[in-house]
Protein 1
Amino acid sequence: MTPDLASQKQALRERLRFRRRHFVANLDPMGRLAAFRAVPDTLRKLLDASPAVGAYAPWGDEPDIRPLLLLDGRRIALPHHADRTAAMTFRISDDGDALRKGPWGSPQPPDSAEIAHPDIILCPLVGFDRHGGRLGQGGGHYDRFFAENPAVPRIGIGWSVQEVDTVPIEQTDILLDAVLTEQEYIITGDRL
């Protein structure tokens, strides 16, 4: 990555985190509770065909979609990092399982949780565009997982205020197939 692209991405991350933080802080309690509780039919069909859904435990002001998935009785697999250098894997997180702080500070299932191979990935976003561009935390964990599992559908989850015209991308960035916000479901490619 060129230094210019890296600085563009970091500046955009900071701006979008600020925007997301203030948007969520100003949501009324009912609005926050209702967000991400309805699934569009096209996404529901994908979820219904997926025995294990890769999701995430929200960190800070990220949307929490787990209650929606648990209502439907799905097996949820969450990202897991053995240490700060290991590749990201997924482990089953059954309702009621205690999450632990992982090496990157994010909540994750314990090391003893069952390893999973998700059939679809619902991933958190710092930013996104309507072309499938995804801006994440910057570690590249999801991009590496996506590159190793190209057939697995990739759905970004974020608040509508995280949308930008164009996410700066590089060769190693893997595009999303769709994005779900509290307002709409955006198909970004032709794989779904």
Note: The chain has one domain: 3-187.
Protein 2
Amino acid sequence: MAFDFDLFVIGAGSGGVRAARIAASHGASVAIAEEYRIGGTCVIRGCVPKKLMVYASRFSDAFEDAAAFGWRFIGEEDRPPSRTPAQPPILEEQDRAAARGGGRRADAPIPVTFHWPTLREKLRAEVSRLSSLYRANLERHGVEIFDTRAEFAGPHEIFLVAEERTVTAEKILIATGAAPWVPHNVPGAAHAITSNEAFELNNLPRSIAIVGGGYIAVEFASIFNGLGVETHLLYRGAPILRGFDMELREKLSQALSARGVNIHTHAEVDRIERCDGQKVVHTRKGEELRVDEVMYATGREPYTFDLHLEKAGVEVAPNGAVKVDAFNRTSAPHIFAVGDVTDTPVQLTPVAIREGHAFADREFGGLEVPPLNIEGVPTAVFTTPEMATCGLTEGQAREKHGDIEVYRTEFRPMMHTISGRQEKMFMKLLVHPETRKLLGAHLIGEAAGEMIQLLAALITAGATKEQLDATIAVHPTAAEELVTMRTPS
């Protein structure tokens, strides 16, 4: 049978774009379909714009700390105005105090304002630039792009909705990602926004309630708090960030609370109502919270809606995720899936990219690529302070290996000896007592995400604690503590 394409990719996110480009570089005829914008969740409404918002939210700290180090705005008096964190300056409607409560000097911050429309337009421009680069890269590799929704019409047939025609492909890759999940059984949940809409708000709210306790919820709580918004985080469990190391969960919760994030645990939402231009959140334990905006960040669901996978014989899990094996094969031998649309336990952009690349190399490059090892995948939670982790949690390590050695340190970074912040850095290493191999690393503090990448390389390579200790420290840095911890706690 003659096919229109060797490979058809449904979804132009990080995993789909990488797979399409690599397959084309191996000489395959490739097409890709995207119903929204090329780049997917990470580029358009996830990692990239979110990290830029994180940067914006941290400038309030920079202004405060600069004043402590002697910097002044021209025309300012010799010392910053005395003000407690609970008394923000009165600003125009579009502006918000860059300062947040908690974890700072009593005489800070210096009076600055934040203009949301400026940041929003910058985010739009950067997202558009990156999306254009993704498109240009695909075109440069000869990938045919269809700006339309694509659905299965048969095992090898794909229906292009906007063009009202069907094309065929020998192999098909599903890379449609996932979408924010909002519960349908909570009255008024439709009044809430999700992370998708958070980047496009017309006005920055004065107050917000974020429902959820995962990394997306926690990151946006930190972002809005940093931009001067009264922020509430409602989590049905305790503590936040289920699945991470328990000690890190507790310490990050304390750090966020010190910065002014109001964390409500065991707070399951009963209903949401509109009232006088605001939204009122009612919890099942009787709490009532009145805010300008409500955001749901209670997880994401695989985007398999109306793909008509049954027409291709593709099996899905109860939650709608595409079932795949270690080589990303579905139940249909010629159909594959990568990224968040699958039942993978690790939903991260780099994982989707690695899966897409490996798929293309195996199927079109004739290369023997082993299955992806997800046990040592590093990750970071871009709150302020930042949290990063790699390898086993302490609980997992004890369950798997029994007795382990735990090295931990907590200290005040050098910068804060002058800035006056009480915020501390925390580091924790887990070591096998017999093999001496590093089992896990867990960090909280500035540049934790940068440091964990290098620690992940050591853990992946099977490095030992003694090899880490043999490394000469870079002084003065926070990272030097990683190679100077000698006594297990």
Note: The radius of gyration is 24 Å.
Protein 3
Amino acid sequence: MTERVLLQPAFVLHARPFKDTSLLVDFLTRDYGRLSAIVRGARSQQSRYRGHLRSFVPILISWSGKSELVSLNQLEPNGSPILLEGNSLLAGMYLNELIVRLLHQHDAHPDIFDDYYKGISALHQNEEIEPTLRRFEKNLLVALGFGFSWAHAADTSNPIATSQWYAFEPDLGFCENLQKFNQRTVFSGAHLLAIAQNNYDNHDVLRTAKQIMRIAMQVRLGNKVIKSRELFI
């Protein structure tokens, strides 16, 4: 039986040509997760979707279908476009790529949708880019079931101490036993506790957070490449 969904809050994550005049679009929806949809005739001059299938624009979409690839039936604005420029635009593209690469289709995560909306809104308001990205990455890992404690050691359950150093294992968290784990991924307890509170006032703390998130994300991405990182460089 064909499923029909009406007026679901969504954002465009990625779009690419499909056949002669259509587009294949990845959407992030609030209650249905990531969705791939055919938007028929979207590239024609007469298309009613022209100008609306852009990233960072809040929309409502309706679709029908009974497979992973559905057909878009309706689209309407759901708020003002969130305008991003320069490095903020690259940061927004990075968030889009992370979701496309890590979130399975039809895997509902309203919390990811809400965090994404907050993240791109923060970028639009010219909040600092790196803390915004780190907060989103932390929340994304938790939502996908890959989170770890920033306040307790994974191997002993002892509270993280500001004066100690910890080895990071992405599948476990932060470990006190430095002899057992890779010495190259050892981090300051004081930094970990600051990151736990999303306190990025110290540049060294922010750098630590970026290193940890790069390691954690790469494990989840595997061989998948995040192209927007190259644009930052």
Note: Residues 3-77 form a domain with the OB fold (Dihydrolipoamide Acetyltransferase, E2P) fold (CATH 2.40.50.140).
Protein 4
Amino acid sequence: MTVSMSDCPIPADECWNAALARDRTYDGRFVSGVLSTGIYCRPSCPARHPKRENVRFFANGAAARAAGLRACLRCSPDDVSRDERAVLSAIAAIKAAEQPLALAALAEETGYSPAHFQRVFTRATGLSPSAYGRALMAERAAQALSAEGSVTDAIYAAGYSGPSRFYEANQGRLGMAPSAWAAGGKGVAIHWASVETSLGAMLVAATDKGVCRLSFNEGREALEARFPNAKLVEGGEDFSNLLEEVIAAVEAPGDFSHIPLDVKGTVFQEAVWRELRRIPKGETRTYAELAAAVGKPKAVRAAGSANGANHVSVLIPCHRVIRTGGGLGGYAWGLDIKRKLLEKEAK
């Protein structure tokens, strides 16, 4: 049987080790194709292990079938596993609920112990059930606040018991007050500056919560488009100290986790951005590895889109993500800047 190279997003050695260990945590993330028998299996399949040279790894059953393989009758790799059903059921319950659901209630609904269900859910989504619920509520609130209507109505519609709970839950997350978010930054002062760096002209902007924009070869008009009703202030004494830290982070990349940020995205985008900040200086990850890191190995394209939606370049180091095979991939500010950033960090 002739089988082309698989499209599995997980490194082959990692897949092989998971299959040897029959690690259930990898079920749903890839399938093992056995060329000598013509079948494909879950990583946790209890069948005897084949020889390594007869195995290829695929992102899913569809890819394995396209290569001429058939599903294993023993482990049924195309069936939705109990863990997957439990997570999908919990997500549906969280989305349908008007108020946050307790972990014990979700676990009882799925037949798991609370501790085990928490592990299963976190492994699948990258967030605990409670964090997923909070992020979903905050996302709903942000969407509602971006539309016309009462701020208070939007807060209640998102599932919060009252405005105080919304402010408490989102302190330091949205940065701006909800009313300002709804009105394009109305009443908020955003300090900004455009400075020359070794990478070219760099735009830096920040609210009193943290950096909300870092880009290259842009000017004030970019901020006016994003925050049309904000008060844009060029420079400022307090802002100058933050600006110096940002310039240092760009010119001599190191640990810049102490620099505060004021960013907002969807639940998935923010999960991707957290993973980006975990990539050590001098290292890179592929788009497939990034998707796997947030618990969504099949969402490679979505991970790339979330990577590109990053508002604060360098501080959320989207430049550290490259294509499988070593190609640089894309970069909003040009591949020349991406290449220079990677060269700086490699030294």
Note: The chain has four domains: 12-71, 80-182, 189-251, 267-346.
